[in-house]
Design goal:
Order of helices and strands: HHHHH
Structural class: mainly alpha
Oligomer: single chain
Number of strands: 0
Number of domains: 1
Largest sheet: none
Distance between the termini: 47 Å
Number of helices: 5
Shape: elongated
Helix content: 40-55%
Strand content: under 5%
C-alpha cells in the first residue's frame, strides 16, 4: 500500500473522464514510487505506507494525474487545440515539487549525517 490509490487519482481526474483502468493501475504505483524516491533523495524519512501530510499526498496525486494524461504524448498531455503553436509548458511540475517538498534541501539532516558530524566534532576535541 502506498500514499495514494486509484480512487484518489480518479477523483482528481474528474467525473467526466472515462477512466482506462489498466493504464491507471500502472500510473498510480509509478507516481507513488517516484514521489517517495524524490522525498528520500531530498533527505526526508517517510513511512512508505502513509503519506506524511495532505500536501505531500496531493502532490503525489497531481503527479499521477499528469502521468495519466501524458499517455502517448511526446512532451506534455495531449491537446486538440487547432491553433496550438507547439508544446505548451503547463507548469504543474513546480506545484508538484512544492507540495512534495522536493527540489530544495530538507530542513533536518538525516540521522546518519548528523551522527557522522557529531563523531567528527568529538575527534577534534
Amino acid at each position: 500500500m502506498g500514499w495514494i490509490t486509484a480512487a484518489d487519482v480518479t477523483v482528481a481526474l474528474g467525473a467526466t473522464t472515462v477512466i482506462d483502468v489498466a493504464w491507471l493501475d500502472q500510473v498510480v504505483p509509478a507516481a507513488d514510487a517516484w514521489a517517495q524516491r524524490k522525498r528520500s533523495e531530498a533527505g526526508y524519512t517517510d513511512d512508505p505506507a502513509i503519506a506524511p501530510s495532505s500536501d505531500v499526498k496531493l502532490g503525489t496525486v497531481l503527479y499521477a494525474v499528469a502521468l495519466y494524461r501524458e499517455r502517448a504524448s511526446a512532451d506534455s498531455f495531449a491537446s486538440f487545440d487547432e491553433l496550438a503553436a507547439g508544446p505548451v509548458v503547463v507548469g504543474a511540475m513546480g506545484q508538484i515539487k512544492r507540495l512534495l517538498g522536493i527540489g530544495r534541501a530538507a530542513v533536518d539532516a538525516p540521522v546518519s549525517l548528523t551522527a557522522a558530524r557529531l563523531r567528527r566534532m568529538s575527534y577534534g576535541r
